[in-house]
């Protein structure tokens, strides 16, 4: 029988303390119980189904860029299983951990992709896995990526809620510059209080009611940053890029958005 988790405030106190310690991010990752590859695989399939009507069935010719990949390229592997062969995966620090690959194989098998895995089952390192996927892993800030306007699909998954509020509009604008004219811009945003995911006894919208002074301590530090931007505010930021919203789905504090860069924008900017 699984032991009940500690209250949310215990995690908040630990992360707040670690934010003041050199190397606190690595300690925080080590303390976390695990990585929900199965859940992220399921999210990856949802993303594929949400974007597919605007892309079509053939993903082999698409150039895709995922910003904020995290600890394992699960979304990119889902796209690979669906036919994508040209992906660039971007993060500001190297977080990939190959130990999650075995869990990914189990999830892919559970979701009916056993026959599609082929020789990829035999890879023994992250470098070999990326090579088999036809994917590049870039450790750099998104505004330094070159060339701009190079991708058919640019996406983030559970990233935008972690960008500081004052930086968010410029970050979204920088990411949007990677989309080529006629290309797509996809975002999945988790608007819920992230301490709720650890301790469901804390309401999913509790962060919106938390006093600003307290949230500045527990929710805006080096380890744990959630900007508390509401769905309607996020949509304003996304539309501020000048791209056209072609699909949205916001429910239960989760938002999914697809925008398209008009061809005319490319002519106007020279991209």
Attribute tags:
alpha/beta; single chain; 7-stranded mixed β-sheet; 7 strands
Element pattern in H and E: HHHEHEHHHEEHEHHHHEEH
Task: Please tally the helical runs, counting DSSP H or I stretches of 4 or more residues.
Answer: 13
Averaging pLDDT over every residue, what do you get? 91
Roughly how many Å is the radius of gyration? Answer: 19 Å
End-to-end separation: 57 Å
The percent range for helix content is 40-55%
Tally of extended strands? 7
Uncertain stretches of 5 or more adjacent residues? 267-271
For the report, how would you describe the main beta sheet? Answer: 7 strands, mixed
Residue fraction in strands: 15-25%
- What is the strand arrangement across the widest sheet? 3-2-1-4-5-7-6
Morphology: globular
- Which structural class is indicated by helix and strand composition? alpha/beta
Task: Note down, in words, how this protein is organized.
With 271 residues, the chain is α/β, with parallel strands linked by helices. 40% of the residues lie in helices and 18% in strands. It contains 13 helices and seven strands. Helix 1 packs antiparallel against helix 2 (24-31) and helix 3 (37-55) packs across helix 4 (74-81). The protein is globular, with a radius of gyration of 19 Å. Mean pLDDT is 91; it is low at 267-271.
């Amino acid at each position: 029988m699984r032991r009940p988790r500690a209250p949310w405030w215990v995690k908040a106190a630990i992360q707040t303390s670690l934010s003041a310690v050199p190397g606190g991010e690595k300690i925080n990752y080590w303390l976390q119980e695990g990585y929900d590859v199965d859940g992220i695989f399921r999210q990856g399939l949802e993303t594929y189904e949400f974007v597919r009507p605007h892309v079509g069935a053939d993903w082999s010719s698409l150039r895709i860029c995922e910003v904020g990949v995290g600890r394992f390229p699960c979304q990119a592997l889902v796209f690979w299983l669906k036919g994508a062969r040209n992906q660039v995966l971007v993060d500001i620090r190297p977080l990939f951990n190959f130990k999650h690959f075995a869990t990914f194989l189990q999830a892919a098998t559970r979701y009916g992709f056993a026959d599609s895995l082929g020789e990829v089952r035999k890879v023994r390192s992250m470098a070999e896995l990326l090579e088999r996927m036809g994917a590049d892993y870039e450790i750099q800030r998104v505004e330094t990526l070159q060339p701009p306007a190079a991708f058919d699909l640019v996406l983030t998954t559970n990233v935008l809620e972690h960008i500081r509020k004052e930086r968010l509009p410029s970050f979204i604008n920088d990411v949007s510059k990677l989309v080529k004219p006629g290309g797509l811009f996809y975002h999945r945003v988790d608007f819920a209080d992230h301490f709720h995911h650890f301790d469901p006894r804390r309401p999913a919208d509790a962060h919106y009611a938390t006093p600003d002074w307290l949230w500045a301590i527990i929710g805006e530090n080096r380890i744990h940053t959630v900007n508390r931007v509401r769905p309607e505010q996020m949509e304003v930021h996304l539309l501020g890029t000048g791209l056209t919203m072609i699909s949205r789905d916001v429910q239960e504090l989760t938002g999914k958005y697809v925008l398209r860069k008009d061809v005319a924008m490319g002519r106007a900017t020279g991209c």
